[in-house]
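Just scan my protein:

——
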Amino acid sequence: MSLSRYYVYCRPVKFCCLIFLISQFSFQVSLAQNKTNESKAQVPASKQSGKFEFGITGGAVLNKFTNNQPQTGYNTGYNAGLFINYTLYKGLSLQAEANLLQQGGQLITFKDDTRFGLPESIETKNVTTSSVKLNSIEIPLLVKYTFKVKQTWMPAIYAGGSYAYLYNATDHYKKTGDLLPGEDFIATITDSRTVTNQYDKNRFNFIAGASIKLPLVSKVIMLIDFRYLQGITPAREDYSYTEKSGFGTDIRSNSFITKFGIILPL
């Protein structure tokens, strides 16, 4: 076989080998890509998300004034708001919120102005049970750590603080005493009144809590959140359950909050 015939014979063989190698490479790349897509499809939305998460929450609040004065008790309120969470490093994140928060508590007040020489009546001598609602705009800032226990659910713990601005305070009360001067006729009056000027406009709180994220539909995640909010600064200064000057103390409002919400990864 001459050199020219050998060259003509080898050229199509080399071309076929090149085509075979290219097809094998393309097949391996396609197979690897399919495996990557399948693995991404198996990862829940909570792990496919980026650094930011946006959420909407709402729930119930159990409130109580501190025992600086003995006659205090519980009442209930609500909490609703928005939050954004930013992942700093792995499970560590920073969360900022804006909430409508209803705090407060129950107070029992014993009033006796007859000691000043006033005639006895339900206004001058009574026992009043008050359920005080402190309606505030709350801005919490939290440091959060999420545990990656399973792919389907992710528990977390967090701590931080919040600033609360009081825009309205309402007292729903029951007042019991003698209805008419000199008459032994006891009556109870039920009513409500605005008492915003009796409570501090600005409050600071400490927050500690835990939450869990569960997959809902598509990329939407459900949030279940439990937190304890402890007042750092007073809700009301110099309060006395006997309304006697010099016997007052500062009282704070503490709350246990249960919230449910939805999260949208950004």
User: Anything to note?
Assistant: The first strand starts at residue 52 and ends at 65. Residues 176 and 188 are 4 Å apart (CA to CA).
